[in-house]
Specification:
This is Metal-dependent carboxypeptidase. The protein is mainly α and 491 residues long. Helix content is 64%, strand content 3%. Strands 1-3-2 form a three-stranded mixed beta sheet, sandwiched between helices.
Length: 491
């Protein structure tokens, strides 16, 4: 056991340093002065160099060789599964490549934000070219002759392949397209209109965060260009954004990020600063954010409560009843922005990005042609043209920071959420009565006990199967969407 104990002590400090790196990233998106971007890139590169060195430290190899996993308990075996995988992955990545990626993606993030604000794709493409080249190099090293994109997906959803994702998306697309066509042919609900001051939005959004179980003693809510969650354990931070003409953007971004944040806050404290102390995969992570945001937050029961909260905050804002408000919240509408997409069309946004980034990594699409490829695909999929870059290929932060292989986990999270919601409804039969009172505890406690507290103890698909009692698949999600929107739109 000495080798295992020595390894876990060493891993504790590595995990702590990784949290420091994450905090630098949080600061960069929320509070860092714009002019500090180049220096921050050097800081991120330096800490990545330290982390990379620790992950390939010769002592790691010695400890791993000495440890017989079969002699460990369930937790120890799970710890070793993660550590061995990280060690094998890191050994394939040259240290100079790891630091180059940290430096370039930190710089690219700032350039992306400025290019997005300026609607200037050309200003971003040179650094994106660098990111893509480095990620291809990394992917080839990881794939070891296999599929480069599979190696990237495995970083975010272990044991998942691009072929499996493509097959799932191919199965989902026809029913989603048919549902969208039927809904868009029906009379739409009234759109929200009016002026909703940012300060008042932030006041209510913090109340929503607490309503969904986010622990403000170990977290905070700030504003960022692109909402995100950061950290784990006892320091988990979320961000949102405001638009004074559209408070739903703020409220549902917050509920979404609270799903991520609560997952991290609710992991068993025994796993703190160990490989089990974070979400097991981005697909499982996204299942939490999506079920909080959609199946709970956009339900008829909860929107009835939210309607009263909004009237208390903003007065009469032109919606006359809870039923009308529910239809407005769930309005299916044309739009460019993935994070603002309705439930019917959201996955179509992901499929677009999945195909484009897969082509980028394969070398079938060049960075110089990305904007045109995006615009052509968007027009084909949604039936209207992209009007400006911030509504097109500049809208997401992911590619600037090198998160290739990440996008498909958003749809995978929707699929997982569909399975979990089906089981949750059976486990908490009075769920709607609770939500109508603004009480989410029955739902969030079930998710905490069945998903969140386990952290990385089980494999991703195993987490969902244990919680839902079924092998993960898209049927529950599609059934939920078809039933909900058929009723809403009378189709």
């Amino acid at each position: 056991m000495s080798a295992y104990e020595d390894l876990m002590r060493f891993e504790h400090d590595t995990q702590a340093l990784a949290q420091v790196a994450g905090r630098l990233g949080w600061d960069q998106e929320t509070m860092m002065p714009r002019g500090a971007a180049d220096q921050r890139g050097e800081e991120m590169a330096a800490i990545e160099g330290v982390l990379h060195a620790r992950r390939i430290d010769p002592r790691m190899g010695d400890w791993l060789a000495q440890i017989d996993d079969a002699t460990l308990d369930q937790v120890g075996q799970a710890q070793m599964r993660h550590i061995r995988k990280t060690y094998a992955r890191t050994m394939k990545i040259p240290a100079d490549l790891a630091t180059k990626l940290a430096r370039v993606t930190s710089r690219a993030q700032g350039l992306w934000a400025q290019a997005r604000a300026d609607e200037d794709v050309a200003a971003f493409l040179p650094v994106l070219e660098e990111v893509v080249a480095l990620k291809r190099e990394e992917g080839k090293a990881l794939a070891n002759g296999g599929d480069v994109y599979d190696a990237m997906v495995d970083d975010y959803e272990p044991e998942m392949t691009a072929a499996e994702l493509a097959a799932m998306f191919d199965a989902m697309r026809p029913r989603l397209v048919a549902l969208r066509a039927a809904v868009l042919a029906a009379e739409p609900p009234r759109a929200l209109s009016g002026h909703f001051p940012s300060e008042m939005q932030m006041e209510l959004t913090r109340k929503l965060a607490v309503t969904f179980g986010y622990d403000m003693r170990h977290g905070r809510v700030d504003k960022a260009v692109h909402p995100f969650s950061s950290g784990s354990g006892h320091d988990v931070r979320i961000t949102t954004r405001t638009n004074e003409l559209d408070p739903f953007n703020c409220f549902y971004s917050t509920i979404h990020e609270v799903g991520h944040g609560c997952y991290e806050q609710n992991i068993d404290d025994a796993y703190l600063l160990t490989p089990l102390g974070g979400g097991v995969s981005m697909g499982v992570h996204e299942s939490q954010s999506r079920i909080y945001e959609n199946q709970l937050g956009r339900s008829r029961a909860f929107t009835g409560w939210l309607y009263g909260q909004m009237r208390d905050s903003f007065g009469d804002f032109g919606i006359d009843s809870e039923d009308e408000f529910y239809r407005t919240v769930n309005r299916v509408h044309d739009g460019y922005i993935r994070t603002e997409a309705d439930e019917v069309q959201y996955n179509l946004h992901i499929m677009l990005r999945f195909d484009l980034e897969r082509a980028l990594m394969a070398g079938d699409l060049q960075v110089a042609d990305l904007e045109a490829a995006w615009n052509d695909r968007f027009s084909a999929d949604f039936g209207y043209a992209v009007d400006r870059p911030s509504n097109g290929c500049l809208q997401d932060v992911h590619w600037s920071v090198g998160l290739f292989g990440y996008f498909p986990t958003y749809s995978l999270g929707n699929v997982y959420a569909g399975c979990l919601h089906e089981a949750l409804r059976k486990a908490v039969p009075d769920l709607d009565d609770q939500l109508a009172r603004g009480e989410t505890g029955g739902a969030t406690a079930w998710l905490r006990d069945n998903v969140q507290r386990h952290g990385g103890l089980f494999r991703p698909a195993e987490v969902i199967e244990r919680a839902s009692g079924r092998v993960p698949g898209p049927e529950p999600l599609l059934t939920y969407l078809e039933a909900k929107f058929a009723a809403l739109y009378g189709v």
